[in-house]
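Checklist before submission:
- one chain only
- standard amino acids only
- sequence pasted in full

Submission:
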Amino acid sequence: MLLKSCCIYSTGVLSILLLICGIALVLSSVFPHFLQSMVEKEVVLKNGTEAFEAWADPPAPIYMQFYFFNLTNPEEVLGGDRPAVVEIGPYTYREYRPMEQVDFQDNGTKVAAVNTKTYIFQRNMSRGPESDLIRTVNIPAMTVMEQFKDSTIMANLISAYMKSSGEGLFITRTVGELLWGYEDALLKALSVMKPDLDDVFGLFYKSNASNDGEYVFFTGQQNYKDFARVDTWKGESTLNWWTSDECNMINGTNGASFHPVVTKDETLYMFSSDLCRSLYAQYEEDVQVKGIPGYRFSPPSQVFANQTVNPANAGFCVPAGNCLGSGVLNVSLCKQGAPIIMSSPHFYQADEKFVQDIFGMKPKKEQHQTAIDINPLTGIILQAAKRLQVNVYVEKIATFSQTGNVRTVVFPVVYLNESVVIDDASATKLHMIMVERNVVVNIPFMLIGLGIILGGIFMFLMCRQKVPESTAAERQPLLSS
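Returned file contents:
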C-alpha cells in the first residue's frame, strides 16, 4: 500500500516538475536560441560546408530572360510624336555562375573570388530564335552624338559620315547582336582617330563567359551577420561614380546569398554591379515555396526615389543636382559615357511621366517587382526575381539632324528578369531541417503536454484511492448494528 501511494505521489511531483520545466523553457526560449546559435556556427564560407558548396556553385537552375521593346513608329517619333513600343520576349538563357579563383584570406575570415557568368540560349523557353529582329534606339550613335554635341567641327564631321552611311537615330538588329555585340560602322570609323575605341557594341558585350571583377567577401566566421558580405570589389571598398560618400558605399552581399537567422524587422543590403550601386530590401510578407516557409523582401520605392522624396539619394544625381526623377538612375558614368538610364521594368515605381512618355508601358507589381524569398532560419534563397530595365536618354541635338524633332524621353530598350527557384534536392534537405527545427522548438511544449497528462493520471489515481476508504467507513456502522 505504501509503495502504491509513493508511486502516485511521485507521478504528481513529476507532473509539476515537467510543467515548471516546460513553462520555464518556453519563457526563456532556450531551444530556439540554441538552434539559432547552431545554425549561425554552421553557415560559414569554409571548405567542406554545405553553405560554401552552395555559394561556390549554386545548385538551383538560374534563368535570365530578356524582353525587348520594339519601336513601331520611328518616323513619327522623329517628327515629335510619342514613341510607341511593343514588348517582345522572353528570350531565355540558362545562367551558370560558379565562383572561381577562390582564395581564403586573413585566417579564413575573408575569401576572394570572381563570379564568372555564362549564358546558354534556351530556344524551347523563348519566344523565338536569337535571329529575331528588333527596332530600337541606335545606342552607339546616341552616345557619340551626346559626347560631341558641344564640338561643332566634330559634330559636323560625324553627322556627315552618318548621312553618307545611312546611320540614324534608330536601328534594326537581331536579339543576339543587341545582347552580345555587333561591329558598329560609326564606332569603327571613329576608331581610326581613337585606336583604343572598341568598335563592337552590345548591351551585354563581354558579359558572357566573363566576370565583373574580383570580390572579397567576409566568410561569417567572426560574425554570422557578415556571411557573404562584400568587403571589396575590384580592390576598392567604395565606389567613385557618385557625388556623396553614402551613395558610394558598397553595402551587403552580392544578392546571391544572405546570412542566417533573418528577422522581419531588418533591412537586407545588396551591391549590384549592374546598377553600379548598393540598394536594400525590406520585409513585405510571409510566403511558402515548395512547402518551405519564407519571408519576402523587396526594395521599397524609397530606394530609387528622387532626392525630394529621399534626400539620401541626392548623391545619385549626376552631374551634381541633375536629377531625372523618381524610379530612374543615370548610370552613364559607369557605362563608358553611354546615356544609359536604369529603372524597374515598365517604369514600375517610377514617376508617372516616364510611363506616360512611352505608349506601351504597363507597370504591374507581380511582373515587374524585384523580390527575394528567404528562409529565415538558414538564410537560403527559396525564390528570387531580379528585374531591371535598360533605357536610353534620348533628346534633340541641334548639331545632329539625325535626331529630328524627337522628344526628350527615357526610351526603354530591354528589361531582364534573372530568376531562380530552389531545386528539389535542396528543398528536401531544407524540409528535413525544418522538421528537426520544429521538433527541437516544440520540446518545451511536449514537456508541458506530458506534465498535463501525468497530472491527469495523478488526479485519477488519487480519486480512485479515496473512493474505497470512504465506502468502507460508511459500511462499518451497519456491520456493528
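Reviewer check: The CA atoms of residues 56 and 99 lie 5 Å apart.
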